[in-house]
Amino acid sequence: MKIILIGPPGSGKGSQARLIQKNFNIPHISTGNIFRIMMNEETSLGKEIFKYMSEAKLVPDDLVIKVMKEYLNREEFKNNFLLDGFPRTLEQAEQLENIVDIDIVILLDTHLKIVQKRVLTRMICPYCGDVYNTVSYSKVTCNSCGATLKARKDDNAAIIKERFKEYELLTKPLIKYYKDKNKLKTIDGDQPIEVIFDTIKKMLVSDL
Ligand SMILES: [Zn+2]
Q1: Which domains does the chain have, with CATH numbers?
Q2: pLDDT top residue among 85 and 155
Q3: Average pLDDT of the chain, as a whole number
Q4: Is 122 in the active site?
């Protein structure tokens, strides 16, 4: 099954993506990951990406599309993949349509208040990247590697609000696009992780 996961920053996309990958054996693909893989493989596209990344510039849309086209056509993604963080715009969605046929688009519909609460209580392991929430995790060290957890320095209420607004502006047309194609499934993203995943599980099983 070919799945797209959409939701604002802090909606728990990453957690759901990991759960879907683990339970359904569907490979999780994020643009950041693809960029890293292609740079490591030193493909010609990888080298182009490196030019932007090394100068901390945003990778332009047409290059992202080229990268997606090359990557999603690989044998390992012939039947299954889960996209997270792409497409971000209507234009990207239209381009993606020419590359692959998406089966289902899951929207984690989450309110700003909930996103702020989640993100502001978030701690990250600087060593392995594991993310914890102080509401549900009371230790100060990482459960996986033992390093001392840190708050992310770019997590503050004003920045979160700004990112949320940007997300809404960019993705509104995207949501309508998939709704019109009858591919959109909306889940209340304000719910706890396990409840959301239960809903996703039922959706995917009935669609398989
Ligand atoms: Zn760790």
Answers
A1: 2-27+80-110+169-207 (3.40.50.300)
A2: 85
A3: 90
A4: yes
Catalytic annotation, pick one of 22, 78, 150, 152:
152
Is 36 marked active-site? no
Q: How far is the CA of 197 from the centre of ligand 1 (A)?
A: 24
Residues 6+ apart with CB under 8 A from 186: 107, 109
Higher pLDDT, 126 or 207: 126
- Based on the residue annotation, tell me whether 13 is a catalytic residue of this protein: yes
The letter for the amino acid at 198 is D
Distance 137 CA to ligand 1 centre (A): 14
Spacing, Cα 148 to ligand 1 middle (Å): 8
Are the C-beta atoms of residues 3 and 103 closer than 8 Å to each other? yes
CA dihedral (170, 15, 10, 72) in degrees, to 10, reads -20
pLDDT in tens, 3-28: 999 999 889 888 899 899 999 999 99
Q: Is 88 a known active-site residue?
A: yes
CB 110 within 8 A of CB 7: yes
Residue 18 is among the residues annotated as catalytic for this protein = no
Q: Please write the tens of the pLDDT for every residue from 111-148.
A: 999 998 888 888 888 888 888 888 888 899 999 899 99
- Residue 152: both structure tokens together: 């992310």
pLDDT at 9: 84
